[in-house]
Amino acid sequence: SASDMVLADDNFASIVAAVAEGRAIYNNTKQFIRYMISSNIGEVVCIFVAAVLGMPETLVPVQLLWVNLVTDGLPATAIGFNKQDSDVMMSKPRKVNEAVVNGWLFFRYMVIGVYVGLATVAGFVWWFVYADNGPKLPYTELVNFDTCSTRQTEYSCSIFDDRHPSTVSMTVLVVVEMFNALNNLSENQSLLVIPPWSNVWLVASIIITMILHVLILYIKPLSILFSVTPLSWSDWKVIFHLSFPVILIDEILKFFSRKPRGRMLNFRFRRLDMLPKREVRDK
């Protein structure tokens, strides 16, 4: 019990399997952190951008609570059941003092989080400005909504109390986070290598989450509770178009993560000074 390693058998493969399992657990922990942080960055960006632009609030508190408790919780838990990467034993051992989140990984958090937030705001703006069933307001009217009651307008100020735009924003946030959950099947492996069905628990959690979200949209007592309204098919198509690019963005980031360090700039480091000089060796 005082030794660094206790061998249960004399098969070296047991050690290899234990190391692989340990690396897989560590990677899944990183993926859980990555999913939660990038999702929460998206929510912060959404609220911050809407406030800076002077638009109405895109999400009400009860909607944010729904996103955090239900749509984030189930997929995040299922990420812990990810299978090992195909190259889990090809990477070099990490240093004991190595940070869980390094600079490049934090950059990836920020890129995905910023896109999640901007996509959520874009869904809100789309309904007011471009949607066929929306008011088709000029963008300048949207960002000056707070002065609507003090000036003459061609539309009713009650349009800013409509629940439709916040419903679109909330649904974009939910769907984009479901796609982002698929990104977290692996830190660097593409979805073409590790497909979604490799983690059936994650697929099941996404399906359950979307069913729950559809229920609150189309069942009246729940829709009133969460300040949402039913969406049309054209709304769902726009939501999908705004949400799916998060997979393409992360695939590009994974591609650069898989490139060996220095290859992009053709840097080759020669470390001749690591060997002792010939005179020293002769001594």
TrEMBL record:
Signal peptide: none annotated. It is a multi-pass membrane protein. This is Cation-transporting P-type ATPase C-terminal domain-containing protein. It is found in: Membrane. Keywords: ATP-binding, Magnesium, Membrane, Nucleotide-binding, Translocase, Transmembrane, Transmembrane helix. Coiled coil: none annotated. It holds the Pfam family Cation_ATPase_C. The chain crosses the membrane at residues 32-53, 65-82, 103-129, 197-218. One of its GO terms (biological process) is calcium ion transmembrane transport. Residues 57-256 form the Cation-transporting P-type ATPase C-terminal domain. One of its GO terms (molecular function) is metal ion transmembrane transporter activity. It comes from the Eukaryota. One of its GO terms (cellular component) is membrane. SUPFAM superfamilies: Calcium ATPase, transmembrane domain M.
